[in-house]
Amino acid sequence: MSQISVNPKHRNDPYHRYKMPAVKSKITNRGNGTFTTIENMLNISESLYHPDDILFKFISYDLATCCDFKKKTLKGAYKNDVIQDSLDKYISYFVLCHKCSIPETTAEIEGKKKKAICKMDCMACGTLSKLDSKDKLLNKTIQLIIKDKQSGRKWKEHKKIYEDLNTVFSFDDFQ
Ligand SMILES: [Zn+2]
To answer: How far is the CA of 122 from the centre of ligand 1 (A)?
Structure first.
């Protein structure tokens, strides 16, 4: 599976640290219409630390089509690059820190019920960015994230830095 940089601006940099699998989709024509399956949505979701159903809904809002989350399908025919472009919009706003552009961010919710706001906490530079947008698509997605977090579902957590160090400098490396 081909790995690409998470940050769309660093796609051509082979040494960029943060990687994700490139979108892999399949278009199927059936009697009842055409649909597109995003085959590696779960792997993408794990690399971005964001739930796959939220990513999937964002893509379907952005492409203005309906989706069947269970089957991981979008109604209509969409090539890999079209889906990747859509996902990149999500990454640029919801995954990359608004200050340092490093994707080590976690969405945090402050306040209760309808007064809740969503902030993005960056583990790399410590910036808290409030997510608030007049853009319809972004705003709809912010609300989706708030609802999801309020439901109490735990999102996948970033690996702690010391765990990374343990993997990089394991004792075996020095023998
Ligand atoms: Zn940052």
So the answer is: 5
75 is a domain residue: yes
pTM for this predicted structure: 0.88
Q: Find the 158 Cα to ligand 1 centroid distance in Å.
A: 14
Instruction: Give the domain extent around 105.
Output: 3-158
What are the tens digits of pLDDT across the range 65-76?
998 988 889 999
- Expressed in angstroms and rounded, the spacing between residue 106 Cα and the centre of ligand 1 is 11
Ligand 1 center from residue 90 Cα (angstroms):
17
Distance 36 CA to ligand 1 centre (A): 34
Answer for the pair 36, 23: CB distance below 8 angstroms, yes or no.
no
CA of 131 to the centre of ligand 1 (A): 14
Q: How many separate domains does the chain show? A: 1
Under the banding of pLDDT at 50, 70 and 90, the label for residue 14 is: confident
Q: Which helix (H) or strand (E) holds 98?
A: none
Is residue 103's pLDDT more than 80? yes
Give CA–CA dist 39/172, Å, rounded.
Answer: 36
